[in-house]
Amino acid sequence: MFEKYRSVIVSFRDVKDRKDLLLEDSGEERIYYAPFDYVNPEARLFIVGITPGEIQMNNMLVEAARNSSRLARR
Q1: Less crowded by CB within 10 Å, the N or C end of the chain?
Q2: Pair 6, 60: CB distance under 8 Å
Q3: Cβ 20 vs Cβ 34: under 8 Å
């Protein structure tokens, strides 16, 4: 899904401006894309979680924007 949202990620600055990352809105709950979908096949440690919070989403999107050209080649 990274390629689908790449243009939004490249210009990402703050989690409050995430409307273009909305995947689903059921009224009470909203699901947003955050680039947690890459898996490093050489990783020696794998941490599994269910729902990243707003801070984790912001941190990941800021880092993905910073590294977008390198991530797009994978």
Answers
A1: C
A2: no
A3: no
Number of alpha carbons in the 13 Å side-chain half-sphere of residue 25: 6
This prediction has a pTM of: 0.62
> Which residues pair with residue 22 across a beta bridge?
32
| β-pair type (22-25, 30-32) | antiparallel
Tokens 């990274």 correspond to what residue? 2
More confident residue, 60 or 48: 60
Cα(55)–Cα(62) distance, integer angstroms = 11
Q: To the nearest 10°, the Cα dihedral for 13, 14, 20, 25?
A: 170
Contacts of 55 (CB under 8 A, 6+ apart): 15
